[in-house]
Amino acid sequence: xxxxxxxxxxxGVLRYTFAGLAHMTGSxxxxxxxxxxxxxxxxxxxxxxxxxIRGAYKQRYYRGILRGMVTIFKDEGIRGLYKGxxxxxxxxxxxxSIRVGSYEPIKRLLGATDPAHTxxxxxxxxxxxxxxxxxxxxxxxxxxxxxLQAEGKLNPGDQKRYRGFWHAVVDIxxxxxLRGLYRGTSPTVQRxxxxxxxxxxxxxxxxxxxxxxxxxxxxxALHIVSAxxxxxxxxxxxxxxxxxxxxxxxxxxxxxxxxxxxxxxxFDCLVKTMRSEGLNGLYKGFIPNWMRLGPHTIISFFLFExxxxxxxxxxx
Length: 316
Fold this sequence. Notes:
This protein is mostly helical. Helix content is 73%, strand content 0%. It has twelve helices and no strands. The two termini are 19 Å apart. Belongs to the mitochondrial carrier (TC 2.A.29) family.
């Protein structure tokens, strides 16, 4: 159907659908890196490492992104690298559909009528609002994804924390209540605001800045270059809150009195991490985070733009 024949509603539905499909593909491709990132973020958790970066590195089980992936593969096989895939895909189908699909309508509500000359602050605000809107819906899937990915090789006699996605849903609901499924909501929303306020606006702004200076023309090459820039920026800005989110979500709750939880809230996790591990602790897993978000951003926005073009929808 040509663009002129499509109603604004049907175009909006397609935009949300394309955003979800594109980001699900990116998530599938980068899941092994995401698993490794989660393991690195909780490796040596709260051990006294401040001021001893070299010693802390030697004590880690997952020493770097490539070694970490090899270690997981040796311990758990290919299935270990794809732990948490089901909730990850469900998360992208909802979260990314909402946050990326809502970015342009929110931007227009803020008065952005000319995509080529929209002030950057309006893009940042639109991204932040879209990220917050999408994140609240998917906290349970994100929580389960983190817990499934965090579980490494089991010792003889140990049992899996969860047998799979649905077992995790039932077990968490039964043992921790509905609130348990929304544990880590605060850092999840904060991360989503930071990620979307960085990723989508940086892609949007980089792309139109390049176009405005006639350095490149609209097309796949421009989409990849713009996504590479956005991928680095989002990894840099989101890594600290990503570490905190992972730790708050993954902490053991079952059978532990509330007053003895490792982390009371986001701020408590931030303070304890900084005291024990210093600033380096907040950037644990930065390389795999970048190696995930970089390719994920490139794949997602490349496909998002491709789907739009094939459907006759103007580019972002």
